[in-house]
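Data availability (excerpt). The following record was deposited with the supplementary files.
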Amino acid sequence: MAEKLKIIPLGGMDEIGKNCTVLEYGKDMIVVDCGVSFPDEDMYGVDLVIPDFTYLVENQKKLKGMFITHGHEDHIGSIPYCMQQVNCPIHGTAMTNGLIKLKLEEHHLADTVKLVTHKPGDVVKAGCFQVEFIHVNHSIADAVAFAIKTPVGTVVFTGDFKIDPTSADGMIDLARFGELGKQGVLALLADSTNVERAGYTPSENTVAEGLDRQFKNCDQRIIVTTFASNMYRIQSVIDTAQRYGRKVAVTGRSMENMLKVATELGYLKIKSGTIVDIAATKSLPKSKVVIVSTGSQGENMSALYRMAFNTHKQIDITSGDRIIISASAIPGNEKSVSRIINELYRKGADVVYEKSEGLHVSGHACREELKIIHGLLKPKFFIPAHGEQRMLQIHSRLAQSMGMNPRNIHIADIGTVLEFTGKTCKVGTPVVAGKVFVDGTGVGDVGSVVLRDRKHLAEDGMIVVCMNLSSEDGSLLTGPDIITRGFVYVKESEDLMEELKEVALEALERCQRKRVRDWSTIKSAIKNDLSGYLYKHTKRNPMILPVIMEI
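Predicted structure:
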């Protein structure tokens, strides 16, 4: 039987973030992107969510390389965790590799993982695959799409992109997309993030104009927060500051790292003397200071959060400070952002955050731009990517509105195996895939059971019942003692504590009358009786942990 090309999403389907896709043909395999997503509100204590790399580990002998479209966390964040389990060359552009290198150094992997740097137009051979780098516009420099030649046809990954004719690094290479369309494209995987928005995404240049309006005639200190990865935005802030004679200081670890990498690689153009240390801003007139900060998404550990809640070591928000939030809240972060804005207002700051002020534009293509890419590439098969379910479905309809056969459109789940010949696409047997949780230094040791327990503890608290029994006859020596956490304030609920002791004691005596000496049976009886009593009298369902010691 002839070999088939397999396209297997390990992330990025039916979700925002965690983008990771496998291409496999015979004995060769490559991976496109390797990102993280951030935890939902009910993922208590979880720091990051990464793909399940089981399939890569099982097939690591086939793995010829990893190819990265750009340097955002949802495309590079999982690389260190993956490289701890498998090892292969990583191919990316200069800016992308600069950011990946920082991550590898943090995880002590920089000496063991090979980074290979390419430019748009380069073609890389990896086993039976030939991967071409194509310049695209996005909110980070050096973003690329991939045209991957396989034995059964060409597959195009747009990565995250938009069409910006006035971009600082030049317009997306639409001509190359057109040439690929004429040559024939087997399958297209395209960014679906902004498919719900009509029209075109505005140019980054409009933000520069919005920033100029905010700097003009402002005689107060200006603090700008944006995504650390958006160098074009940071360059606009620096240019505007220079124009109005202001010094620029940077705060926030990710912002400092980005500035270091971007300056070393020549992506940021900064006049000598413009950047100053954050401590030096205290001795400067407020009208001569701009602070560029992390925290546009309301992150608890970010610089802006610490400023707002008086925990920043070097900056205190004072009345009259102008805070410019040059970003839109990622879905799910609205409450966190709102909380910071309210606190900044409470301190008397002038907060500018409305979209109408022209202070933020998206880095993703809207519907008309997506139509242009579909029209140029004319793929035989289409797989909507990079989006939640509604986005994938709407993108499917957009492709159909352009004349594409619905049978040639496949909305995949994580772990779905799409098998291609030159003429057909069928769904194969799914592979192991899903979410792996990173909590501190632990990777994968927090699963659904642990999260369920954490959710239970967060919602209803915990009760521990302690008692000591005789090893000779099972009689009660001491206890029962009741310890609670997150359930009630004990000093104000002494009557309830006494009642719980009575319930636990009755359960124990019932087991003793039946001559039960099995500790697990006794624990279950105590737990069941307490649970029923508590729900009846308090309508709460705390976690109950009986602890029996034999003396």
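Summary of structural features: The chain has a mean pLDDT of 88.
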